[in-house]
Amino acid sequence: VSQSRYMGRLLAGHFVIGAAPSHWILSFSFFLFLSLALVKRYIEVPRNLHVVRRLSYGPSSKKYIWIAGNLANAIAFVMFVSFISAQSESARYLHPPFLLLAASTILLWNLRLWDRAKRNAITQDLVQFSVMDRLSWIGFGLVILSWYLARGRF
Asked: Under DSSP, is residue 97 helix (H, G, I), strand (E, B) or coil?
């Protein structure tokens, strides 16, 4: 449900600006948002047992949620790298290899979320955690910098 809301917002944004979303952004976003939705679910499992029972999964499902979430993260990374490698897409950037910094940063940021979730170190919402987390801000800056460099604005 969370993942579909994220995708809905992405599509609405494309509709508002009048741009057709590329299959690259849709594929990457689908798997990234799926991983984020699953990490949210992973964090909630031990906390909300009455809700979890209604949804027919429980603490024994945590291992499968963890595997699926990390796999979705890896697929999102592969989709981003495939985008960078595609000739038709890389022509939009003067220096597409700089986007590898963004792809790696997003991969590592998401892996860090999963690690923190597994250690029960995330006690609030993912957005709140990311806003309060210094490394998340550094990662955001690296993603912006890599996009800036890939566009040739240096």
From this structure: helix
Q: What is the pLDDT of residue 75?
A: 96
Instruction: Take residue 133 and report the two structure tokens written for it.
Output: 């987390």
Helical segments of the chain, H only: 2-17, 23-44, 49-54, 62-85, 87-90, 99-118, 126-132, 134-150
Strand, coil or helix: what is 46? coil
Listed as ranges, residues in the chain with pLDDT below 50 are: none
* pLDDT at site 93: 87
Task: Collect all residues with Cβ–Cβ distance below 8 Å to 116 and sequence separation of at least 6.
Answer: 122, 129
Do residues 103 and 84 make contact, with C-beta atoms less than 8 angstroms apart?
yes
